Amino acid sequence: MHRELTIENFKCFSEKTKIKLGKISICLGSNSVGKSSVIQACIILRQIYEQAVLFKETQVKEYSVQLNDVYGLQLGDAEHIKSSKNREDICLRVDEYEYNLISDEHSPMEMTVKNRYDVAKMSSSEGLFSKGFYYLNAERMGPRNYQTINSKLVDGCGVYGENTIHLLSMLGPSKVKESKCFGLDENKKVGTFSKQVEYWMDYIIPGIEINADDMTELRISKMSLRQPALDTGFLSPYNFGFGISYVLPIVLTGLLAESGSVFLVENPEAHLHPKGQSHIGYFLAIMALSGVQVIVETHSEHVLNGIRIAALKNAMKPEDISINFFSVSVCGAEAKHKVENIPLNDRMDLEAWPEGFLDQEEEDLKTLRELRRR
Question: Where is each DUF3696 domain found (predicted)?
Answer without folding.
Answer: 317-368
